[in-house]
Amino acid sequence: MFLWSYNDLFSSLVFVNYEGIKPIVVLLSFISSQYGTNYGLMATAVTVTVIPVLIVYLFIQKYIEKGVTAGAVKG
């Protein structure tokens, strides 16, 4: 659910009108245009986008594993 909310581009484009607080996924969509893509800038932006998710995962990894294995059936 976290990743879905983090990557929800459509609602970000519709509901956020102020330029200063747009999420990073909106900025990623603006990097790529019909005139071309700056792949160095795109790679940097994607890296900056992925790093917070990885950091959050590292801190809550044990809770995720407990939640996944809590519903498992032994057998």
Describe the protein's architecture and organization:
- The chain has one domain.
- Helix content is 69%, strand content 0%.
- It has four helices and no strands.
- Helix 3 (24-31) packs antiparallel against helix 4 (39-70).
- It is elongated and about 55 Å long.
- The model has no long low-confidence stretch (mean pLDDT 79).
Short description:
The chain has 75 residues and is mainly α.
Kindly list the characteristics that best describe this protein:
75 residues, mainly alpha, 4 helices, 0% strand
- What structural category do the secondary elements indicate? mainly alpha
The figure for the number of domains is 1
Low-confidence segments: none
- The topology string of helices and strands comes to HHHH
Number of helices: 4
Q: What summary fits the major beta sheet?
A: none
Helix content: 55-70%
Q: Indicate the radius of gyration in whole angstroms.
A: 17 Å
- Report the count of strand segments: 0
- Globally, the shape reads elongated
Task: Classify the beta-strand content into a percent band.
Answer: under 5%
How many angstroms separate the termini? 29 Å
* Mean pLDDT metric: 79
By oligomeric state, this entry counts as single chain
